[in-house]
Amino acid sequence: SWLSMWMMLEINLMSFVPILFFGSNKKTNFLFKYFIVQNISSATFLTSIILLWTSELMNINNLINFNMFNFIMTLSMIMKMGLVPMHMWYIEVLMYISWMNIFLMSTWQKIIPLMIISYMHNNMTMNISIMLSCLLSSIQGMSQLNLRKIMAFSSMNHSSWMMINSTMSLYLMFIYMIIYSMISYNIIYMFNINNVSYLHEIYFMNNYNSTYKLFLFYNILSMAGLPPFLGFMIKLMSIKFLILNNMFLITSMLMISSLLSL
After folding, report:
1. Which residue from 160, 191, 193, 207 has the least number of CB within 10 angstroms?
2. Domain NADH:quinone oxidoreductase/Mrp antiporter transmembrane spans what residues (predicted)?
């Protein structure tokens, strides 16, 4: 039920906040920002559930109420996942947390919202957010030198792919999530053990042999979706599903964003 999904979101939030707190040795202002945003999005989600229940109890099944329910619920998931136009908090929070917490926020924390989206009807609000998220993240990511910001914009881009995948097939979304998690973990693990924070620091990793560096760049190219790497194959599979569902505009936007991210 929708209420059980809301409870899952709250349990997930309560379990992740301590991880964020103990996993960072910097100022904790970001923690309050994360907590407030997540609570607002959960409250918005609960509001949409109450709206749906009210409509059912009063036996009002008109299109306006259904569209309102869909719109409010979509906004709550967009806010929770940190997509456009509610993405600024996501970038700011990722700037102050550890590399391993960045990995968790980019992967594990997205699973429940994506599962909720899979039960929703695709709508214009969701499509606009997906298209803006993939394009904006690619454009802004190109001008960044801070690796945390680059990974944050990359996470936004891949989240837009996973969101549209979840509306078509939950199975496809989980395949994308697993592959993205593997690639993301490899990159973040190497950034973490080398204690790098800026792009130019990657080129000064002289303590490791060429095989180690090659493995890092292989994962970076795979995350960018360059053929014939694994990241390209899952995007190709997603594009096939999009075309079969006649989503040509979103397909074009996602492909353009992938070209920009290269």
Report:
1. 207
2. 1-260
Nearest alpha-carbon partner for 216 in 233, 201, 237: 201
SS3 208: coil
Q: Per-residue pLDDT tens for 76-94?
A: 999 999 998 899 999 999 9
State how many domains the chain has.
1
Report d(CA 234, CA 237) in Å as an integer: 5
Instruction: Supply angle C-alpha 16, 141, 165, rounded to 5.
Output: 60
Tokens describing residue 109 = 């924390």
Across the range 232-241, mean pLDDT stands at 94
What is d(CA 40, CA 193) in angstroms, rounded to the nearest whole number?
35
Between CA 128 and CA 124 the distance in angstroms is: 6
**Against a cut of 0.85, is the pTM above it?**
yes
Q: Give the range of the structural domain holding residue 161, as residue numbers without chain letter.
A: 2-261
Would you mind telling me the total number of residues written for the chain in this entry?
262
Per 3-state DSSP, the chain is made up of helix, strand and coil in percentages (nearest 5) of 80, 0, 20
Q: For residue 198, what are the β-bridge partners?
A: 146
Of 126, 127, 149, whose CA–CA distance to 137 is shortest? Answer: 149
For residue 39, the one-letter residue type is N
User: Distance between CA 136 and CA 173 in Å, rounded?
Assistant: 22
Contact 172, 238 (CB under 8 A): yes
How far apart, in Å, are the Cα atoms of 214 and each of 187, 193, 202, 219?
Answer: 12, 16, 12, 9
